[in-house]
Design a protein that fits this description.
72% of the residues lie in helices and 0% in strands. The chain has 166 residues and is mainly alpha-helical.
Protein backbone atom coordinates (compact mmCIF):
# COMPACT_ATOMS: atom_id res chain seq x y z
CA UNK A 1 0.00 0.00 0.00
CA UNK A 2 2.74 2.47 0.97
CA UNK A 3 4.75 1.71 -2.15
CA UNK A 4 1.64 2.22 -4.29
CA UNK A 5 0.98 5.63 -2.71
CA UNK A 6 4.64 6.58 -3.15
CA UNK A 7 4.75 5.49 -6.80
CA UNK A 8 1.52 7.34 -7.59
CA UNK A 9 2.80 10.49 -5.90
CA UNK A 10 6.14 10.13 -7.71
CA UNK A 11 4.40 9.86 -11.08
CA UNK A 12 2.24 12.91 -10.41
CA UNK A 13 5.18 15.07 -9.28
CA UNK A 14 7.40 13.95 -12.17
CA UNK A 15 4.63 14.56 -14.72
CA UNK A 16 3.77 18.00 -13.35
CA UNK A 17 7.41 19.09 -13.15
CA UNK A 18 8.21 17.69 -16.61
CA UNK A 19 5.28 19.47 -18.26
CA UNK A 20 6.08 22.66 -16.39
CA UNK A 21 9.74 22.46 -17.42
CA UNK A 22 8.69 21.92 -21.04
CA UNK A 23 6.48 25.02 -20.80
CA UNK A 24 9.43 26.96 -19.37
CA UNK A 25 11.65 25.91 -22.29
CA UNK A 26 8.94 26.93 -24.77
CA UNK A 27 8.51 30.29 -23.01
CA UNK A 28 12.28 30.86 -23.07
CA UNK A 29 12.31 30.15 -26.80
CA UNK A 30 9.41 32.56 -27.28
CA UNK A 31 11.25 35.22 -25.30
CA UNK A 32 14.33 34.86 -27.53
CA UNK A 33 12.28 34.85 -30.74
CA UNK A 34 10.21 37.86 -29.75
CA UNK A 35 13.23 39.87 -28.64
CA UNK A 36 15.75 39.11 -31.39
CA UNK A 37 13.69 38.07 -34.42
CA UNK A 38 10.55 40.14 -33.98
CA UNK A 39 12.20 43.07 -32.23
CA UNK A 40 9.36 43.29 -29.68
CA UNK A 41 10.37 41.78 -26.32
CA UNK A 42 7.74 39.73 -24.57
CA UNK A 43 6.46 41.53 -21.49
CA UNK A 44 5.22 38.51 -19.59
CA UNK A 45 7.72 35.73 -20.32
CA UNK A 46 10.36 36.76 -17.78
CA UNK A 47 7.83 36.94 -14.96
CA UNK A 48 6.30 33.61 -15.97
CA UNK A 49 9.73 31.99 -15.94
CA UNK A 50 10.63 33.47 -12.55
CA UNK A 51 7.39 32.28 -10.95
CA UNK A 52 7.63 28.88 -12.64
CA UNK A 53 11.15 28.40 -11.33
CA UNK A 54 9.85 28.87 -7.79
CA UNK A 55 7.12 26.27 -8.29
CA UNK A 56 9.29 23.68 -10.04
CA UNK A 57 12.07 24.12 -7.47
CA UNK A 58 9.75 23.65 -4.51
CA UNK A 59 8.06 20.57 -5.97
CA UNK A 60 11.41 19.09 -6.93
CA UNK A 61 12.75 19.61 -3.41
CA UNK A 62 9.80 17.66 -2.01
CA UNK A 63 10.36 14.90 -4.58
CA UNK A 64 14.07 14.58 -3.77
CA UNK A 65 13.31 14.37 -0.05
CA UNK A 66 10.78 11.65 -0.83
CA UNK A 67 13.45 9.69 -2.67
CA UNK A 68 15.85 10.31 0.23
CA UNK A 69 18.45 11.55 -2.24
CA UNK A 70 18.97 14.87 -0.52
CA UNK A 71 22.39 15.88 0.75
CA UNK A 72 23.21 14.06 3.94
CA UNK A 73 26.29 13.52 6.02
CA UNK A 74 26.83 9.91 6.99
CA UNK A 75 30.14 10.17 8.83
CA UNK A 76 28.66 9.23 12.20
CA UNK A 77 25.67 7.17 11.14
CA UNK A 78 27.86 4.84 9.06
CA UNK A 79 29.72 3.82 12.21
CA UNK A 80 26.52 3.13 14.19
CA UNK A 81 24.64 -0.15 14.39
CA UNK A 82 21.80 -0.80 11.97
CA UNK A 83 19.23 -0.25 14.74
CA UNK A 84 20.81 3.11 15.67
CA UNK A 85 20.93 4.08 11.99
CA UNK A 86 17.24 3.30 11.64
CA UNK A 87 16.33 5.48 14.64
CA UNK A 88 18.60 8.26 13.39
CA UNK A 89 16.92 8.20 9.96
CA UNK A 90 13.46 8.26 11.57
CA UNK A 91 14.55 11.28 13.60
CA UNK A 92 15.74 13.01 10.42
CA UNK A 93 12.44 12.24 8.68
CA UNK A 94 10.54 13.64 11.68
CA UNK A 95 12.65 16.81 11.43
CA UNK A 96 11.70 17.07 7.74
CA UNK A 97 8.07 16.53 8.71
CA UNK A 98 8.20 19.29 11.34
CA UNK A 99 9.90 21.67 8.89
CA UNK A 100 7.32 20.88 6.22
CA UNK A 101 4.32 21.38 8.48
CA UNK A 102 5.39 24.36 10.57
CA UNK A 103 7.54 26.33 8.11
CA UNK A 104 6.35 25.43 4.64
CA UNK A 105 2.66 24.68 5.15
CA UNK A 106 1.80 27.12 7.95
CA UNK A 107 4.28 29.84 7.02
CA UNK A 108 3.61 29.44 3.31
CA UNK A 109 -0.13 29.62 3.81
CA UNK A 110 0.29 32.78 5.86
CA UNK A 111 2.59 34.35 3.23
CA UNK A 112 0.19 33.34 0.48
CA UNK A 113 -2.86 34.74 2.22
CA UNK A 114 -1.31 38.13 2.97
CA UNK A 115 -0.04 38.56 -0.61
CA UNK A 116 -3.26 37.67 -2.44
CA UNK A 117 -4.05 41.37 -2.85
CA UNK A 118 -0.69 42.12 -4.48
CA UNK A 119 -0.86 41.80 -8.25
CA UNK A 120 2.16 40.90 -10.38
CA UNK A 121 2.96 43.63 -12.90
CA UNK A 122 3.17 41.62 -16.15
CA UNK A 123 0.92 38.61 -15.69
CA UNK A 124 -1.64 40.32 -13.47
CA UNK A 125 -1.76 37.33 -11.11
CA UNK A 126 -2.14 37.64 -7.36
CA UNK A 127 1.29 37.12 -5.81
CA UNK A 128 -0.32 34.73 -3.35
CA UNK A 129 -0.44 32.16 -6.15
CA UNK A 130 3.35 32.25 -6.34
CA UNK A 131 3.61 31.75 -2.58
CA UNK A 132 1.17 28.82 -2.73
CA UNK A 133 4.16 26.79 -3.88
CA UNK A 134 5.33 26.71 -0.25
CA UNK A 135 2.33 25.07 1.41
CA UNK A 136 1.69 22.72 -1.50
CA UNK A 137 5.31 21.55 -1.64
CA UNK A 138 5.26 21.37 2.17
CA UNK A 139 2.24 19.08 2.11
CA UNK A 140 3.93 16.82 -0.46
CA UNK A 141 7.15 16.84 1.56
CA UNK A 142 5.22 15.99 4.74
CA UNK A 143 3.50 13.08 2.99
CA UNK A 144 6.82 11.76 1.71
CA UNK A 145 8.35 12.10 5.19
CA UNK A 146 5.45 10.17 6.72
CA UNK A 147 5.85 7.42 4.13
CA UNK A 148 9.58 7.28 4.79
CA UNK A 149 9.02 7.12 8.56
CA UNK A 150 6.54 4.29 8.23
CA UNK A 151 8.82 2.29 5.96
CA UNK A 152 11.85 2.88 8.20
CA UNK A 153 9.88 2.01 11.33
CA UNK A 154 8.40 -1.18 9.89
CA UNK A 155 11.73 -2.25 8.41
CA UNK A 156 10.52 -2.10 4.80
CA UNK A 157 13.40 0.26 4.04
CA UNK A 158 17.03 0.01 5.06
CA UNK A 159 18.27 3.17 6.80
CA UNK A 160 20.92 3.82 4.16
CA UNK A 161 18.97 2.98 1.00
CA UNK A 162 16.86 5.39 -0.99
CA UNK A 163 13.09 5.11 -0.83
CA UNK A 164 12.65 4.44 -4.53
CA UNK A 165 14.58 1.19 -4.17
CA UNK A 166 12.21 -0.14 -1.50
Amino acid sequence: MINRVRKTLDRIIVAVCSIWLLAMVAMTCWQIISRYLLGVPSTYSEEFLRFSLVWVSMLTIAYVVGLRKHVRFTLFSDKASEKAQRYWQILIELAFLAFAVFILVQGGYHASSITMNQISPSLGLPMGYVYLALPIAGAVLALYSLLNCIQLFTGEMDPDEEANNA
